[in-house]
């Protein structure tokens, strides 16, 4: 039985988290549109992008939108002309919600760059709610045996981190530097280690350094420390532009630095000889394609990853966001609606 109304959170007025930009509301359960399915949410992870949306770093695309783009649940109903996913199917709803399928970027398998793309929790209501809708072509099938709380962080932290790993051009058996060690980095590091990389983790958080060693990092250091050996590739997960020259200077000849975040503070002036010469490359990472998502979820199913999570009831979404803003969350914060908490 699908209820008429549900609990949800909306970004009422974007602003600093201290001004409580999220508001709890009772709203009608949405009806799935053409090609969409309705998903009953079992867990939704909290991403740093949700914080950027709540605080207004990413301007709202529509008023009073429900954030959340790492939702795990089951199909509760199908809309007109949907039917690939039947009711009861376990699915994940991620950041990329739709693309045009016709532009030059979509045509060359770069749908992450589609100018007509839309995003869950930004252009449409997301998973800080008991139900949400998603175009079925953009939902991922998920395994049955893993708890929802441990699957949710894979949907953005995992998938976008995996794209950053691909963009870092790490050679097989190479040396990877990981700058910052939150939800996304701890998953990406495990994939790189499983694939044979030597991983050096540089982060200011002492508890994150401990976790990195437990997960198999070869060394850990403070964010601005030089790694013990030159790096073939590096990924910057911390939203700190001042670490760009630090990471570039740590690269070996021909190395690549990929910046994983959607938002970065200003990058200080670079020195050509110290930071770029010898064919070092600086790259951004923009969202992901569905192929990245399927590939990563396949890897996660084959090499079960340790997913560090801190559960919060859905009622405490604003507290979870405030904890993330204050760097007080270990691993990923995950919201659980009442009946799953
Ligand atoms: Zn397109
Ligand atoms: Zn995200």
From TrEMBL:
Its cofactor is Zn(2+). It is an enzyme of class 1 (oxidoreductase). InterPro entries: ADH-like_C, ADH-like_N, ADH_Zn_CS, ADH_Zn_typ-2, ER, GroES-like_sf, NAD(P)-bd_dom_sf. It comes from the Bacteria. Its EC number is 1.1.1.1. It catalyses: a primary alcohol + NAD(+) = an aldehyde + NADH + H(+); a secondary alcohol + NAD(+) = a ketone + NADH + H(+). Keywords: Metal-binding, Oxidoreductase, Zinc. It holds the Pfam family ADH_N. Residues 18-335 form the Enoyl reductase (ER) domain. NCBIfam families: adh_fam_2. Belongs to the zinc-containing alcohol dehydrogenase family. This is alcohol dehydrogenase. It comes from Streptosporangium fragile. The lineage of its organism: Bacteria, Bacillati, Actinomycetota, Actinomycetes, Streptosporangiales.
């Amino acid at each position: 039985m699908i209820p008429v109304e549900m609990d949800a959170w909306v970004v009422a007025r974007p602003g600093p988290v201290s001004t409580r930009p999220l508001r709890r509301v009772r709203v009608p359960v949405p009806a799935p549109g053409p090609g969409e399915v309705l998903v009953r949410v079992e867990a939704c992870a909290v991403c740093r992008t949700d914080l950027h949306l709540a605080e207004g770093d990413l301007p709202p695309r529509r008023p009073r939108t429900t954030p959340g783009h790492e939702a795990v649940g089951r199909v509760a109903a199908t809309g007109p002309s949907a039917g690939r996913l039947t009711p009861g199917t376990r699915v994940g709803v991620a950041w990329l919600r739709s693309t045009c399928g016709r532009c030059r970027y979509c045509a060359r398998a770069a749908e992450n760059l589609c100018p007509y793309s839309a995003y869950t929790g930004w252009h449409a209501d997301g998973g800080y709610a008991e139900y949400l809708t998603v175009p079925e072509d953009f939902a991922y099938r998920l395994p049955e045996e893993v708890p929802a709380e441990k699957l949710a962080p894979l949907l953005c932290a995992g998938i976008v981190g995996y794209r950053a790993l691909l963009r870092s051009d790490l050679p097989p058996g190479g040396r990877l530097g990981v700058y910052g060690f939150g939800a996304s980095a701890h998953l990406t590091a495990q994939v790189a280690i499983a694939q044979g990389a030597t991983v050096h983790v540089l982060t200011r958080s002492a508890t994150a350094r401990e976790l990195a060693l437990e997960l198999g990092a070869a060394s850990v250091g403070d964010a601005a420390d030089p790694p013990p050996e030159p790096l073939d590739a590096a990924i910057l997960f911390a939203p700190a532009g001042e670490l760009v020259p630090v990471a570039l200077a740590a690269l070996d000849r021909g190395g690549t630095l990929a910046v994983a975040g959607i938002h970065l503070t200003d990058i200080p002036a670079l020195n050509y000889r110290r930071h770029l010469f010898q064919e070092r490359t600086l790259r951004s990472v923009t969202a992901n394609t569905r192929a990245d998502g399927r590939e990563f979820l396949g890897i996660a199913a084959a090499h079960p990853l340790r997913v560090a999570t801190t559960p919060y009831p859905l009622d405490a979404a604003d507290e979870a966001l405030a904890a993330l803003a204050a760097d007080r969350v270990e691993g990923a914060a995950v919201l659980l609606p009442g009946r799953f908490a």
